[in-house]
Batch of 3 targets.
Target 1
Amino acid sequence: MSKHKELVIGMFGFGVVGEGLYRVLQQTPSLKASIKKVCIKHPGKKRNAPAELFTTDKDELLNDKEINVIVEVIDDSKAAFEIVKTALKNKKEAVSSSKKMIAENLPELLELQLKTGRSFLYESSACASIPVIRNLEEYYDNDLLHSIRAIVNGSTNFILTKIFEENLSFKEALLLAQQLGFAESDPTLDVEGFDAVNKWTLLLNHAYGIVTSPDKILFNGIQTINKSDAVVARARGQQIKLVAQAKKLIGGGVGAFVLPQFVTNDSPLAFVKNEYNGCVIESGFADQQFFYGKGAGSFPTASAVLSDISALRYGYKYEYKKLYHHEPHKLNDDIYLKVFVSFNDLADIPKDDFEWIEQWHAQEDRKYLSGVIHLEKLKKSNWWKENGTSLILEPDPIIENIEERKLKKKSLELAGLV
Ligand code: HSE
């Protein structure tokens, strides 16, 4: 696209994000971008925009030669994929906020971009207002990214904050997240971790060149967290957060998962409350960096879509540098995790699956243990999500040098110190 070309936008969807973008664009005339048509599903709904702006015919946008950018902010991932595919094939640039669609169709979307040479941007699809994709893509264009830990779902973070700090019930907190426009139309996508793992799938690509799919990554949401877990967290001076993380492993590859985790109060992630998201990056020489901003909601999400539209004016494309210009990394599931498990009945816990168990508290009504387990063992089973069992990662959960740890433990045991 030539420099400073006028952008004529065809937009799909006029929900929380779509309407936000419409308003934001009205307030930024300097961008030289205007919405020509908006395609919607339900024409009967009352909308705060002129009726002639809307259509229900997708081809009116996709076949309009004057429209050079398709912005897609709908929540039907199948329809979203068709829209983006057609837009790119019809030589239009595309902007999307559909994390589920991108995560589930990553290989095909990568191929389409190569084939058509068109830009496909989706900064708003992960961490909303935080420019995390472009940072991973451009700034960390090297092999020095040691690890990333992030809160990538605003709704679950909002719910945890409201439950643990304001004593709301889960139901009340979720309802509020829905009313404020943070939650997905199907909120189980947020609550059970699907949204977070979708975002993590696409971020792993920009961080490490990993091409994977959400079903290959170990994940859970916050639905299994018990009130008693919060009591334990408070007693330890910690908080519980839903954390997506990835770490380059000594033995090669990247360990990655999305699970609830105890976070120490001095961690930057402990500072992330309500619908905010945060991302802690550890890299070779810079040490630790922290990105923070609103991770859900109309204007914060629209601001990222706006930034993508603005980037199209100078022909910006993701180059997928880690994938195409470096040796891409692979996921490595051969890691051990330090976990805390709370449960009602010992019979629900497969004790033999653990490498070792450090602590047992089996007396109280709500029982718990701390132990070490291989990631694959969790991936292959569901006991840790069932029968009221709750699994939460310890603050520094990855154990790589397991043999060394076992030897050390043995010698401490022999010396009678544990
Ligand atoms: N439901 C999502 C969240 C919206 O709560 O993070 C932003 O992607």
Target 2
Amino acid sequence: MSTQKELPSWLNDAIIYNIYPQSFNDTNSDGIGDLKGITEKLEYIQSLGANCIWINPVFKSPFLDAGYDVSDYYQIAERYGDLEDFKQLISEAKKRGIRVLLDLVAGHTSWDHPWFKESCKGDDNPYSDYYIWTDARIQKKRFVNGIGERDGGYMYNFYVHQPALNYGYYNIDENSPWQISMDDPRALKVHQELRNVISFWMDFGIDGFRVDMAMSIIKNDPECIGIKKFWSRLRSWFNTEYPDGVLLSEWGNPARAIDVGFHVDFMHQFGTLGWWNLFRDQVDPGQDLDVGFFSRSGEGCIEDFLSVFLEHHAKTKEKGYICIPSANHDTNRPSIHRSGRDLRVIQAFLLTAPGVPLIYYGDEIGMRFYKGLKNKEGAYYRSSSRTPMQWDSTVNAGFSTADKNELYLPIDPQNDRPTVDSQDTDEDSLLNLVRKLTKIRQETPALENNGDIIPVYAKNKKIPFVYLRKNNDDQYAMVVLNPSMNNETITIETDKIDGKTILSEGVTLLQEDGHKWEIGVKPQSFGIFE
Ligand code: GLC
Ligand code: CA
């Protein structure tokens, strides 16, 4: 089992910025963001206080699922540039102390991948068993018949064009002789292919991967025993080869994912309900629906979030990190049904919480969740979170000089759409708040990623939420959050702070006698104290 000692130390102050490459910055006017565009904006990313970027897939692909359908793991998709551009990006990032994570689409390829094309052939060849094929036509969920020359159907992972790679089964159904064990030499060949891909990019100079659908690798393994075997083997190999490298899983169950070998796991839109308990959409007053903690109504349920978070935190501390993203390319943006001060309180939480923070591109300026877009490259509703970054007030918000109709997705058409340029010079902007908060995080020992969170005042449907952050050297900070429109005054007791204000927007802290503190919160306020 891994211990903190085996964790790369840079994770303890990592702040990730997640870039959706097609929507970030277009430098050749084809309407699609590219690698050069990312390189051009590294200084901006650095100005946010982020020291790591995760880029969604940039590999060769037919783009039926926006690149999560890889047809060559070793090539950069033409629309993003080439290996030279990527080399440039990494070296420029290194100069600025920014680490680079790529997206490892481990579980499946595109049906355009040469491995799959070979695998479809009727005659036996080295790729016949690279995918999961039945030995006859089959009526079963997640299986597709009628493609290729073989007498059988193949299993897919997400969309039908994403055939599942054959890493093997944990439990083999005796009536399905086509299933092979995860330790079968045929499966081990595929395991090796994955290591080759990892090595290629790590040797190229990246710092690790976000691992797509990490729990999907081994089939028929409800207890995750085979999956644990798979990832822990991979992790020990990875630790030896790349001791400073990091694997961040898309799992949504940190206790499990970190136990099987990941350094970091998301608490996000599926799996545990942690993220959902924070961000569940704001509902209109009067509607009888549970709301997430970040609600103007004051009806948010912080205990629901904490019960999940604290359990996972206790199980993963010293072994890995939880990452609560502001959003990602699959979720709503936090700005859905929210604006202005709502987003400030959200950032105040995300950037003071334990674990590795992650800012999804555009959330630092409050980009909107642009509803009603068409399905683009398999995105469906997810298009709304994937619109082009809004840099300034020039044509196409500075994203691209292509014709408006050529853009990957349309730009938020509203006149008052937020931009980097307009917020950059405004001291009170969300952008500058994010910068302040990341700086505070880096400068306040109590806010280290591997520290604890200790609730001081945390009650469902009550505000504020007050917690202490503590690092392993027993240094403390206290954070007060009020996402609601209500005023409140409460009294708490703690001897862990002196009452010095690090940053406050609408929170007052008055020392009563001894260790008693009176906390007054204005609507939608937050404060950080020492
Ligand atoms: C992950 C990705 C998502 C993709 C799916 C299939 O959930 O985040 O965007 O569609 O896997 O690879
Ligand atoms: Ca481009």
Target 3
Amino acid sequence: MSERRVFSGIQPTAGSFQLGNYLGAIRHWVRLQETYQAFYCVVDLHSLTVPQDPAELRTATMTAYAQILAAGVDPARSVPFVQSHVAEHAQLTWVLQGLTGFGEASRMTQFKDKSTRGGAESASVGLFTYPMLMAADILLYRTHAVPVGEDQRQHLELTRDLAQRFNSRFGDTFVVPEAHIVKETAKILDLQDPTAKMSKSQPGGCVFLLDPPKVIAKKIRSAVTDSETEVRFDPAAKPGVSNLLTILAALTARDVETVAKAYQGSGYGALKADAADAVLAFAEPFAARVRELLDDPGELARVMADGAARAREVAAPVLATAYQRVGLVPAG
Ligand code: TRP
């Protein structure tokens, strides 16, 4: 096992992960735990940056955690945990807020998007400081690589800047992390509008992994393609067909060109049917495992507590060093 560390986080907002979350993120988490010391976090504190329903947040956090395990994140090999269980995340965030410029934070495009959507006046201060909490997540584990989507690149740049700033002001404390952006399946597209990314905000074109198999199959079989008949991987000219090829290739561990060749002359029907089968071959046992985990909340809580304890072992001394370096007097 290498000593190199990987950290990633996912928000517990949706009840069910969607196919894009799995293929674009969680699948890579599972792979990376083979070669890295991996920390995977359900970032429930990040969910407090927008209005939340307490009962829903609790359920979503448990469900997200169960889904990470069901997808193959193995507590024997990596450290899956819940952000709020490790107080050091909130504590380091405060230190990093003092190092972040107001202007610098104002330039975060995700904040600009999210705050203008709901009206800038109603956006919370938490939404504004969200990237510093994310930076704390990463820096507490002296992380080397952070698997994230393209949309998080700017937050990762800020994290790198804050690590460098802290190190040069107060002495070498944090590892400056690298983004680990997976290109091929980084973008699974909406099945009804293959010009947009698959997103739970457009449920019609989005496959939720915990949905009934019939619903999943129907969504894939009714995916929008184009008026030709030729199966070819060409994301610009044929986004719908290419998206189905990407999904099928990822789930059957083949490359898209190989998969495309297999459908030459057979039309879109066969491709859709096989893509639906491949998704169900993953989703059905996945959903069964999630149900099993959620049916035993005592055991789930035990695994969560164990993850939190192991995360804290790494995070606590890093926070203590940071506190000491900035001039806080140790409590004991
Ligand atoms: N902001 C990330 C997202 O929305 C989630 C996240 C929080 C994260 N903390 C993180 C991702 C740390 C990577 C590392 O996708």
